[in-house]
Description:
This protein folds into two domains: 4-84, Arc Repressor Mutant, subunit A (Orthogonal Bundle), CATH 1.10.10; 87-143, no CATH class. 51% of the residues lie in helices and 10% in strands. It has helices spanning 4-23, 32-36, 49-63, 85-92, 110-116, 119-129, 132-143; strands at 28-31, 67-68, 71-73, 77-83. The termini are far apart. Strands 1, 2, 3 and 4 form a four-stranded antiparallel sheet that branches. With 154 residues, it is α+β, with helices and mostly antiparallel strands. β3 and β4 (77-83) form a beta hairpin.
Amino acid sequence: MSDIHIDDFYRDSAKILVRLYATFPTPITLYVEDISGPDEPDEFGLHHPRFESCFSTMIWLAQHDYLHFDELLRKEAMDRVVLTQKAFLILAGSSLANEPHNNVPPEAPPSIADRLNTQIAQLRNALNEGSSIQLKEAITNVLSHPNVGDSPTP
Length: 154
């Protein structure tokens, strides 16, 4: 049995982080529909489960210190949302494995290779490729990254 809801979580997380990185450090209003796609509430005004899942992903990322927002606009959006310092440093940093990935040409100058080997580049590449496996790997790398600024335990 496939865990489609987990694949959706990976894709939504990647889209959210890429969108916020593109506007960093400027806070934006992030609409759920911009991430999950159009939603048509049912006759009772309830959102589609896919929309609800995307909204929950946004809340989860905030609860785990990847983004900060000032207020919720109902269940439609987050207002004045921005990456946290932790998230920015993880996304701007090199991939966790410190190995060049497939999207880094061997002849690339070091400055370009370094930029293509960042976490944000891996997320963008995974979204462009559309591969669930690449998205899982890219998001897992971001979420399992050691917390920036935390001192190692002795």
